[in-house]
Design a protein that fits this description.
There is one protein chain. The chain has about 110 residues and is mainly α. It folds into two domains: about 40 residues, no CATH class; about 70 residues, no CATH class. The chain is built from four helices and no strands. The longest helix is centred in the last third of the chain and has 21 residues. The N and C termini lie far apart (about 35 Å). InterPro entries: BUG (IPR005064), Bug_dom1 (IPR042100). Belongs to the UPF0065 (bug) family.
């Protein structure tokens, strides 16, 4: 990482809390500089009415993959902090993010050009 070499000094991270990967770097939300954390997340979505058994199988396979030694090494190398949730929790996150960013867009009168 550049931080360890001294070539890069992070001033803050745009998340709700400090990262365990950079515990001495404050969160911009914590420092009250930024009021809307923008955590990076990814998810896997399937077609509507996907069979529950298939959703369960995919969820199990993804959980196993995220916890594998190879992926743990990859996450460490890329300074990524993985968190895996169940399908219901992901659906709730998806809905809340849509609502949250729609509010930001409306409040700031953001328009596509």
């Amino acid at each position: 990482m550049c931080r360890k070499s001294g070539r890069l000094t992070p001033l803050g991270i745009v998340s709700a809390k400090r990262s365990p990967l950079l515990p001495d770097v404050p969160s911009l939300v914590e420092d009250r500089i930024f009021d809307a954390p923008a955590d990076f997340w990814m998810g896997l979505a399937g077609p509507p009415r996907m069979p529950a058994t298939l959703v369960k199988q995919l969820s199990h396979a993804l959980t196993k993959a995220v916890q594998s030694p190879e992926m743990k090494q990859f996450f460490q190398k890329t300074a990524t902090e993985p968190a895996f949730t169940d399908p219901g929790s992901f659906e709730a996150l998806w809905q809340s993010e849509q609502h949250r960013w729609a509010e930001v867009i409306r409040a700031r009168h953001i328009r596509a050009e």
